[in-house]
Write a structure and sequence with these properties.
256 residues, five-stranded antiparallel beta sheet, 14 strands, globular, Pept_M24_MAP, aminopeptidase activity, Methionine aminopeptidase
Length: 256
C-alpha cells in the first residue's frame, strides 16, 4: 500500500515527527556510560504514553521477526545495527549506540533513528561510520522531490556510502510510512536512478541508510530480532521521516 496524504494530514504527520525527534533527543541526552538498555526502553515508554501516542513496536510482528517485539524502542550496540531488542545490558564509554523509534499519533506514524558514541571515548572508526550514514541520509533527502523516482534516492544514498568505502546491504532499507509504520515503496540504500515509484506531494518516506565496517552480511541473535554484522564489526544507522512537498522534501522528525 502507498498512501498520499492531504495537507491537513501532513500537518498531523509533522506533530508525530516532532514527537519522535524530541523523544530521541531527550533519550540521547540522558544516556551515559552505565545506562541500561532496559532503562532506555522505560524512558521511551513513559514519553510515548505521556504524549498520548502509540508505539509502533510493542505489538509489531512481521514475518522476519520473532514477534511481537514487545518493547518501545530499538537499542543496537556496536555490532548490532537493526531491530536491536533492549535487554539487561549497560553501555560503556566508547560504545556506539543506535536508537530507532517509531510512534503513531492521531493516526499518522513517524520513524527515525540516530547513532552516537556514548561517553568521552570517540573511536575514529565509529565516528567515520556515523558521519557516512548522516551524509548519505542528507543526500537521499536532497534527491527527494516531486517527479523524482525511488531509484534516484537509492542512488544518492548508495553513492555516498560506497564512496566512504562501505559495502551496502539492500535487504533492509527505507520505506513508505503513514497510517502504518512500514508501507511501500521500499527504498533500498543503493539502486539505479530513473527507476521505481514516482514521488509526489503528500507521500511520506522513512529514509534509513545503515552500514557495517567490513561486511554487508547480517546475522540474527537468539532473540529473533537483533541483527548484527556477520563479522562482529561496528555498525551505524541514520533515519528521518520526510514529506514530499511541492518543492522538495521536508524533514518531519527533527525536534522542535
Amino acid at each position: 500500500m502507498i498512501e498520499i496524504f492531504t495537507p491537513a494530514e501532513v500537518d498531523r504527520a509533522r506533530r508525530t515527527g516532532a514527537l519522535v525527534g524530541e523523544i530521541l533527543d531527550a533519550i540521547r541526552s540522558r544516556v551515559v556510560p552505565g545506562t541500561n538498555l532496559l532503562e532506555i526502553d522505560a524512558w521511551a515508554k513513559e514519553m510515548i504514553l505521556g504524549a498520548g501516542a502509540v508505539s509502533c513496536y510493542v505489538d509489531y510482528a512481521p514475518s522476519f521477526g520473532r514477534g511481537p517485539f514487545g518493547h518501545y524502542i530499538c537499542t543496537a550496540v556496536n555490532d548490532a545495527v537493526l531491530h536491536g531488542m533492549p535487554h539487561d545490558e549497560r553501555v560503556a564509554d566508547g560504545d556506539l549506540l543506535t536508537l530507532d523509534l517509531a510512534v503513531t499519533l492521531d493516526g499518522i506514524s513517524a520513524d527515525a533513528a540516530v547513532s552516537f558514541i556514548v561517553g568521552e571515548n570517540r573511536p575514529a572508526e565509529s565516528v567515520a561510520l556515523i558521519e557516512a550514514t548522516e551524509r548519505a541520509l542528507a543526500a537521499g533527502i536532497a534527491a527527494a522531490k516531486p517527479g523524482a523516482k525511488v531509484g534516484d534516492l537509492s542512488r544518492a544514498i548508495g553513492t555516498v556510502l560506497k564512496q566512504a568505502g562501505y559495502s551496502v546491504n539492500v535487504e533492509f532499507g527505507g520505506h513508505g510510512i503513514g497510517t502504518t509504520m512500514h508501507q511501500d515503496p521500499h527504498v533500498p540504500n543503493a539502486g539505479r536512478p530513473g527507476r521505481g515509484f514516482v514521488l509526489r506531494p503528500g507521500l511520506l518516506l522513512a529514509l534509513e541508510p545503515w552500514v557495517m565496517v567490513d561486511t554487508d552480511q547480517l546475522v540474527i541473535d537468539d532473540d529473533g530480532w537483533t541483527l548484527r554484522s556477520a563479522t562482529g564489526c561496528r555498525t551505524a544507522h541514520a533515519e528521518h521521516t520526510i514529506a514530499i512537498t511541492e518543492t522538495g522534501a521536508e524533514i518531519l522528525t527533527l525536534p522542535r
